[in-house]
Every structure is written in C-alpha cells, then in structure tokens.
C-alpha cells in the first residue's frame, strides 16, 4: 500500500528555555483537566493548552454524558448499546470498564461542582439519544452540558495551586530517550502565554488529551484548535494509531449553505431524543422502516440515510422537524440550539431546520491499553485523541465525555502505581520537515470529497495523490500555521492509508465500492505507525499498517487480539 510521505519531525527553532515537571498534560478538555486534577498527588503537574484553558471541544458538547444512573437501567444495558453501535469492533473489556466505572465517575463530577439538570424531586433529569434503549443521558443547562462540565473542571483546576497552566501553547514534538521512552516535550508559546518562543519541558510522563482531527474537513462541529496535533506528534514518536478510518459524521449539523466552511453549529441528537424527526423536501419522514429506532438509530446509520436521501433527491440537505415542541420546550430544554438557529435566520419553533452531516468525532486515535498507556513507554492518551477500544467503528452518542472522564482517572491510578523515572532525551537524528500553511483549504476540500462520508478506491487514491503534491510545495518559515498544516497532512495521510486498506463498509466507514460489512475478512482493527528509523537521507517517512484481528473471548464475545 502506498501513502503520501510526511515529515518525521517538525522543523522548529532550537528550544530557548527549559523546565522540568513530573507530569505534562496536553489539552484542557474533560480528559485533560480530569487527568491534571487526579495527577496532583504524583508530583508537579503542568497543563499545556493551545488557546485559553476553556477553549477545547468539551465546551461544545450539547447532548450530555451517558451513564447508567436511572431506574431500570444497568451497566450491562449500556454495554449492549455501546457494542451494537460499535459495529463489531468495540473491545468488550474496554466497554465494560466504561460502563461500570462511569456512574461513580459522574457522581464524583457532580461532587466536584458540575450542576446537571434535575427533576422536581431532585433526581437527575435523564434523556435518550441515538442508539440508546434507556434514558441515560445526563445534561446541564438544557443543551449546554459540555460548557457546564468545562466550567466546573476549570474552576477546580484554578483552585488547585499545585497545577500550572501554559495557555496559547502548541506542543511540537515528544522528546524520547535512547530506548524510545518519553523524556518530555518541545512546545511553542504563542506570545500570550507565560513563556515565550520554543522551549523544552522534561517530564517523567506525558498525558495526551489534545482532542480530535475535525479541521481535516471543510465542514465540522469541531473548534479551530482541532488540527490533529496529538495524533500527529504521537505518530512521529513511533506510537501506534488504531481505527483511524472511522470518522463519525454527525447527521444533524445546521446547514448554512454550500459556501459554509469551518466550525458549523451542531443540532444535538438530544433534539431527536425528545421527539424531533427527519423529513425530506416534501415533508416525508424517511427513517421509519430503516432501523428499529428510526430517527434515533446510531449516528452512522442516520448519516448514511441522510446522504442517500440527498443523493437521490439532488438536494444538499434535509430537514429536522421539531415544531411540535412549542416555544417553552425550546427555550427550557434547548436554549443554545434555539439561539444558534435564530442567529442564522431560522426559527425552529415555527420552521423546519435544514441539516446535513458534518465531521464530528474520531472514533480511532492513538492506541492505548485499559490503563491509557500507549505503545510508547511513558506516553498516555485519553479522550478523543485516544483509541481505547470503546467506540469501535462508530461511537455511541454521549459516550465521549464519559470515556475521557473514566480513562483519565485510570491513567493516574496506573501512574500512581509506577511513575516512570526521568530519562535523558536522546539526540534526534531525524531531518525536520514542514508543510506550507496555505495547503489547508485544498487539504480540507480533497478530504471532504475523497475521504468524507462516502468513500471509494478512486476517491481515496485521488485524495492521496493530491496530498502528495501538497506536501511537496515549498514551506515557509516555521510557525503555528505551518506546524498545524503539517499535523493535518500527517493525520490525513494515515487516515487515507487506513480507509484505502479497509475494503468493506462498517460503522462510520462507508465504501461505495465495497458496500457490505465483511466480518470474514475485516472483523478487526488496522494499526498504523510511522517508522522511527526511516531513511535519514530524507525528511519523510511512510505509514505502514498492521491488521489486528479479533478473537473469541471465553465468554464468546469478540475482543482485540
């Protein structure tokens, strides 16, 4: 298999300053801030974040956090729904960790100060979303769950005098010792931070919680900081990434016209959980009969149904009908979405809401074990940047916040048992490289067309060929735009390699030239790495893949082998 070549490390000035801490946490969403709070007893903790501490993807989460907290629900029921959504690729052991440890983790979050919506009797107000057979989605502020969780975590971190924060900083690459284990990070502080310019932080462990890759696509629900930085720097350090072909496209993103680009307003799945339904341009419902849950089917099924409807009709969007909610329900339950729609000239109380799929979440990422340890000693990962095995081929709605919360706690428990010693960084012999910052719009276009919701061998090949040409363009001076562009190209290259290899349709990976799920040949995961010992006469390396099949567990359930 061929794939575009990518830089083995980022071209950047030599570090002009150094510092030392026990644990570096990269990212400040639910995963990163939970890890930082839990890691304080291990020693000194430093949180590095690209913008202000509250600017990550967590604050944009509308629907809620899923956990078996209500009457009639159970972790076993939650496990079943998660495995079904994962389309045969979820690791049952990882899912069991999520669903059994999740309820207590949410209760601890409430103890920390997160204020979830409650009923008149004080019990949590729980709702449903796609793929769930029980009401188990806890929400806050109606549709502002992520913002409330982020508020509570940021407040707790700022109360903790033993956690340092560097804002407006981009982590460039990982420092590794001669044996490949983590020795620290290099980073660039962008003027408004506590330090200035490129520096190096020595550390005993690095916890990667940097979020996803949404900016690979022209339309996304992700903020501008989601440029795949964590996945890219992990690949450059020799880490294994898994299931990168499974990018979830949220089925109901507010359609703002053909020219709309960048972060788009999300219309939460919880709106359908409360009874809204999809209709075509003639007002006819089209999800009934396609799945037992109809409009509340798992996201990949709904997104595919919308795309099929759009292709058949020649239209570039469908509609969501929630007019029957009435004014009060919209104001109380979905105030954020109501305001967003009205700011774009749409009144959902009286009008249909135009929606279309857009890039939302990466189910794959940097591979970890059940303790969050990656294939690089001393490097841990949690949240969207990680692939814990929970999501498989398609994430179940509202499992993302819970996964970040649960596995961040498991990482710090693991580090408490065996915190690595400080290691001396080895001399890095890899020749640095950089991609031209101006390639991003074209990169987003070709990824949307060739590696978006619908894929084929020809479309993926064309996207890969275009990436190869973009990489070869002369790069400018090192800086944040070029570093982000290089990270995007690196992750795009790996994603195309995986999507090209998987010749079937499963979960959120839809190959029109291989339209069926093929359990005989593809019931397993694809791992990708960038060889750390690549050709030193060039600044490029090529992704290689390893197919990891599933095997039967003693209980008869499939597990990753």
Secondary structural class: alpha/beta
> How many beta-strand segments?
26
Low-confidence stretches: 533-543, 551-561
Largest sheet: 6 strands, mixed
Query: How are strands sequenced across the largest beta sheet?
Result: 22-20-14-23-25-26
Per DSSP, the total helix count is 14
Biased composition (Basic and acidic residues): 501-522
Catalytic activity: L-aspartate + O2 = iminosuccinate + H2O2
InterPro entries: FAD-dep_OxRdtase_2_FAD-bd, FAD/NAD-bd_sf, Fum_R/Succ_DH_flav-like_C_sf, Fum_Rdtase/Succ_DH_flav-like_C, NadB, Succ_DH/fumarate_Rdtase_cat_sf
EC number: 1.4.3.16
Structure notes:
By secondary structure, the chain is α/β, with parallel strands linked by helices. The chain contains 14 helices and 26 strands. It has helices at 30-39, 75-85, 92-112, 145-159, 229-236, 269-273, 299-313, 326-333, 335-343, 399-417, 440-450, 457-472, 480-501, 519-522, and strands at residues 6-7, 18-20, 23-26, 45-48, 65-66, 126-127, 137-138, 163-166, 169-176, 182-189, 197-202, 205-208, 219-220, 241-242, 247-254, 262-263, 277-279, 318-321, 353-362, 365-367, 379-381, 386-387, 524-529, 540-541, 544-552, 558-560. A 6-stranded mixed sheet has the order 22-20-14-23-25-26, sandwiched between helices. A 5-stranded parallel sheet has the order 8-4-3-12-21, covered by helices on one side. Helix 2 packs across helix 3, helix 3 packs across helix 10 (399-417) and helix 12 (457-472) runs antiparallel to helix 13 (480-501). The two termini are 23 Å apart. Residues 533-543 and 551-561 have low confidence and may be disordered.
